[in-house]
Each structure stands twice: as C-alpha cells, then as structure tokens.
Amino acid sequence: MDLIAGRVWADERRPIRHLDPVLLVTALLLAAAGLFLVYSATHQSLDALKLDPAQFVKKQFTAFVLGFVFLILVAAFDYRFYKVYAGFIYGAVVMALTLGTAFGPLSAGAVFDHAGTYAPFLMGAAIMTALAALALASLGRPHHYPKRRRRRCKRSRCGARAASSLR
What's the domain count of the chain? Predict the structure, then answer.
C-alpha cells in the first residue's frame, strides 16, 4: 500500500493502475510525429512571411498538452463511477446534441450577422459549457431508494397461478 495525499490506496484501487503504458507511449510518439509534420509543412511559408516558423507548432503543442492532461484526468477515475451515472450522462449528451443541432446554426448565424464573426458565439458556448459542468459537479450523490421486496406466496397458490396462465 502507498500513502497518497494522506489516503491509503490498495494496489487494486490505485488510479494509475488502469493506465496502459504502451498506449501512452504510442500517443506520445504520434503527437511528436504530428508536431514534426506541422513544422515541416509550415516553416518555409512562415519564414517567407517573416513570421515565427514555430507558430503553429506552439499551438499544436498547447493542444497536445491540454489533451494529455485531460487523458490522465479521465484515466485516473474509476470507470465504475461512470457506470452508476451512465444513463444520466447519456441522456444529457443526447439532449445537448439535439438542442445544439436544432438551435446552434440559427443562433450562430444571428451572431455572425450582428457581429461579423463567430467569436462571441463560440465564447458564449464555452461559457455555457463551463456553467453546465459546474452545475453537474455541484449535484450531490443520488438518493438510493431501498429495493422493493418481492412477495412470496405459498407453493400451492403459485403453482395454481402458473398453471392458469398457461391455459
């Protein structure tokens, strides 16, 4: 057992146990190859324009770091936690997808007509996403109702009921 942040973790409950090292190394190698390809595809044209030749590589690296941090955060949580909330999460995602498909283009077009750019719409969408995440995070644990007990009946009555249902 290890002592992590004042808690004792059993080996089978350690979050890092679920990480696949081959998958992580493969993702790192693919990201490094992607950074190289972005640099090799853009550095000459950016040099010709007297701009920073690593401009796009820096943006790509920032996106990679954010994605890798998100990967570690998601992988650190036990999947059984998500199993409890799977129905709610699925319903919320389907509802958001439906509403976004229905009203997203309409509102984005209205914002573009007014502002001449999509930036305010995208900023509003990011703020709404953050607020929704905070609202979901502030929900407490769900109330678990006790299971209903099945009534038992005497064998003679259960057999008679089963036999009558077959007729």
Answer: 2
User: Is residue 148 in some structural domain?
Assistant: no
Question: Which residues lie across from 7 on neighbouring strands?
Answer: 4
Residue 91 belongs to what domain range? 85-136
pTM over 0.85: no
Q: Which residues contact 14 (CB under 8 A, 6 or more apart)?
A: 2, 4
CB 44 within 8 A of CB 38: no
For residue 4, give the H/E element and its range. Answer: strand 2-4
Phi, psi dihedrals of residue 150, rounded to the nearest 5°: -80, 140
DSSP 16: G
For residue range 3-51, list pLDDT tens digits in order.
444 555 565 566 666 677 888 889 899 999 999 999 999 989 988 899 9
Give residues with Cβ within 8 angstroms of 112, minimum separation 6: 118, 121
Strands (E), 14-117: none
Backbone angles phi, psi at 2, to 5 degrees: -115, 155
Q: Rounded CA gap, 60 and 39, in Å?
A: 10
